[in-house]
Design brief:
Layout: H1 2-7, E1 13-17, H2 22-32, E2 36-44, H3 58-68, E3 72-76, H4 82-94, E4 100-102, H5 109-122, E5 125-127, H6 135-144, E6 148-155, H7 171-179, E7 191-197, E8 207-209, E9 213-215, E10 218-220, E11 223-225
Helix pairs in contact: 4-5
């Protein structure tokens, strides 16, 4: 199953579940070396203003899709109807010829099982190009390929600080995270990123940083597009 999950976009049209962060962007890049992308899907919060996974604004999400050059399907959902709404988006992608779903999951078994379940219900194959690859190797290759991503969310209870917000992932910064005992991919929820440039982008996004926000043990750095990118 491991090898199959890594390569199931081979010679197939696929739809990518996209958060706008480093893992989903890198998985999309890897899948594009194997098959043909037809669309991105992004799940939104109930109000339909921000992404469910990373809390990104619709402006950023649509600008990323435009820079990548793919149509984007979105749906607002509560956690209770998340799966149903997600499957409906998969069905829209199937109308474009999608045969596989691509996700950026690395090694969380519960996520893989959920992905496989929705694929089974939708009669799609599942491709997770990053599945069970070494985490440090993933982030190093991501950076070396020329991706640029900004840390936009940190969990203050998991070793991250407000000073980490706005940091661009670099090899040197990743080494600092590892030295602090922080997972380089943030797989325990230590941090989230937003990708603003890379080999899947036709042009970089120009963004401006807002004022830091706090909620419980999290700190957030809102980013917005410069007017010329809207």
């Amino acid at each position: 199953m491991l090898t199959q999950w890594n390569t199931r976009a081979q010679n197939r049209k696929f739809v990518a579940s996209y958060s706008g962060g480093k893992d989903s962007s890198f998985a999309l890049y890897q899948a594009m070396q194997m098959g043909e992308p037809v669309a991105l899907i992004v799940m939104l919060e109930e109000q339909g203003l921000k992404s469910r996974s990373h809390g990104m604004s619709l402006d950023i999400i649509h600008a990323q899709a435009k820079a990548i050059g793919l149509p984007i399907y979105t749906a607002s959902a509560t956690w209770q109807d998340y799966e149903n709404q997600f499957i409906q988006l998969l069905q829209k992608a199937q109308a474009l010829g999608a045969e596989s779903l691509v996700t950026g999951d690395i090694d969380l078994k519960a996520h893989a099982e959920w992905n496989q379940s929705v694929c089974d219900k939708s009669e799609l194959s599942l491709c997770m190009p990053l599945w069970q690859r070494p985490r440090l190797k993933i982030v190093h290759e991501f950076i070396q390929l020329g991706f640029q991503s900004i840390i936009v969310t940190v969990n203050l209870n998991l070793g991250m600080t407000v000073e980490d917000l706005g940091q661009v992932l670099s090899l040197e910064y990743v080494d600092q995270l590892v030295a602090r005992g922080i997972d380089p991919c943030g797989e325990a929820g230590e941090f989230h990123t937003t990708v603003i440039d890379g080999p899947i982008f036709k042009h970089p996004l120009s963004v401006v940083k807002g004022d830091i926000l706090y909620h419980e043990n999290y700190a957030f750095l809102p980013i917005e597009l410069e007017k010329r990118d809207i």
